[in-house]
Amino acid sequence: MARIWEEENKFRKWLEIEIYACEAWAELGKIPQEALAEIKEKAGFNISRIKEIEKIVRHDVIAFLTSVAEQVGDASKYIHLGLTSSDILDTALALLMREAADQIFRRLKDLRAVLVEKAKEHKYTIMMGRTHGVHAEPITFGLKMALWVMEVDRHIERLHQAREMISVGKISGAVGTFANVDPRVEEYVCHKLGLKPAQVSTQIIQRDRHAQYMTTLAIIASSLEKMATEIRNLQRTDILEVEEPFEQGQKGSSAMPHKRNPIMCERIAGLARIIRSNALAALENIPLWHERDLTHSSVERVIIPDSTILLDYMLAKFTEVMAGLKVYPENMRRNLEATHGLVFSQRVLLALVEKGLLREEAYALVQRNAMEAWRKGVSFKELLLKDKEVTSRLTPSEIEDLFDYSYHLKYVDYIFERAGLK
User: Fold this and answer.
1) Contacts made by residues 302-307, CB under 8 angstroms, sequence distance 24+
2) CATH number at residue 276
3) Are residues 150 and 267 in the same domain?
4) Which of 242, 256, 295, 387 is at 20 to 30 A from 80, Cα to Cα?
């Protein structure tokens, strides 16, 4: 990803756009064919020389064009004909953002493959479902992974939309009116680059497009933080149902040799904050003065490369975490049974309602026993078997049948099939 944002790649894009514009002008008879041939043969740039010139002129595109002109000679007078700097800058930025999106696509697909594997492997690995951080009802670890697969699929779809939105170019001159450049030049250049011409532009491509792209990156980063935070929570010593990889020779603490900390997940959670902050800056870039000002430019030189590079890194690292994730089904079972059967409270409630009790009456009856089991740390089922109000409605055999974990797994296959994870 970093290579995409290197100056060499950026200047290559600028030169490519300038040459395509020259080709278009040549087809329109504005540039002699021999001059075009000379431009295509000699055009190049020297990054060190560009930097030298920029120190004097304080304008990056002029410095670039001067460097190119030094290599081309007299025919360079036809380069940048009728164009403004942002014709080059914004069209090239679209190409770079598109390349970055393609790299993120690859990372998302790699993560998805690992999550699908984990989902299938742990399809029936039963664990405690938690709401508000409190035990709720049983789920499976495979269902948790399937949920994440679906989220990654949505990110792939969002990124496709953002890539499409940013894949536009403009070669329309100083305020977008084509006063000094034929619209056919823009059509030619964009066609060659695989971009769509912006239907209407000013001096720039409008920044709502870039904001959509950046907010998409932020949403992906936030999902990675959500997933990483779940791993961190499940790795807590008192839960320890999963654990991120801990390599041979790795140390968790300078003071405490026993520590195995979820440092990669914590890093991912922290970096997500930067990408979200950058997305806010992208939103601030939308309102510009009149046909363009320069307030967005310096911001974008930081936030777009940084966010794509960070997200690429986060996806790579979280894929490593998930590929090497340690899963502890025995601890999942231990935690499942920690509340002495309270996870079956809703099933008991529904059974009593089916026997004719009003829901409020049944709720009070079940809650009374549940709270006693909670306070005393005793079997919820045993309390129910001793409660005459309960046994007057449910037989011991019926109560026993209610405490069956498989009841909660009966639609796992259906959910997986609906998610396309057979």
Assistant:
1) 302/278, 303/214, 303/278, 304/93, 304/96, 304/97, 304/100, 304/210, 304/214, 305/5, 306/274, 306/278, 307/214, 307/217, 307/218, 307/221, 307/274, 307/275, 307/278, 307/279
2) 1.20.200.10
3) yes
4) 295
Q: Which residues make Cβ contacts (< 8 Å) with residue 52, sequence separation at least 6?
A: none
Task: Indicate whether this model's pTM tops 0.85.
Answer: yes
Residues 276 and 362 in one domain: no
Euclidean distance between CA atoms 185 and 183, whole angstroms: 5
Give residue 256's pLDDT.
Answer: 78
**Phi, psi values for residue 214, rounded to 5°:** -70, -35
- Residue 278 pLDDT: 98
Whether 67 is a known active-site residue: answer: no
Tokens standing for 164?
């499409």
Residue 210 to residue 98: CA distance in whole angstroms? 11
Judge if 299 and 223 occupy the same domain.
yes
Instruction: Name the active-site residue from 59, 160, 253, 277.
Output: 253
Instruction: Give the list of residues 6+ apart from residue 25 with CB closer than 8 angstroms, or none.
Output: 31, 78, 81, 182, 185
Domain membership flag for residue 14: yes
- How many structural domains is the chain composed of? 3
What's the distance, Cα to Cα, between the start and end of the chain in Å? 34
CA distances to 105, 251, 252, 253, 415 from 256, rounded to whole Å, are: 40, 9, 8, 5, 43
d(CA 216, CA 160): 10
Distance (Å, rounded) from C-alpha 105 to C-alpha 157?
10
Spell out, as residue ranges, where the chain has pLDDT lower than 70. Answer: 252-255
Chain segment 27-69, per-residue pLDDT in tens: 999 999 999 999 999 999 999 999 999 999 999 999 999 999 9
Residue 236 belongs to some domain of the structure: yes
Q: How much is the pLDDT for 319?
A: 98
Q: Do residues 149 and 115 touch, judged by C-beta distance below 8 A? A: yes
Residue 254 pLDDT: 66
Same domain? For 206 and 304 the reply is yes
- The answer to whether residues 263 and 148 belong to one domain is yes
Q: Domain of 370?
A: 342-402
Task: For residues 224 and 218, give the distance between their C-alpha atoms in angstroms, rounded to a whole number.
Answer: 10
415 in any annotated domain: no
Q: Is 277 within a domain?
A: yes
Which residue has 């320069």 as its token pair? 294
397 included as an active-site residue: no
Assign 277 to helix, strand or coil: helix
Residues 273 and 159 in one domain: yes
Q: Are residues 305 and 383 in the same domain?
A: no
Residue 9 maps to which CATH number? 1.10.275.10
**How much is the pLDDT for 6?**
96
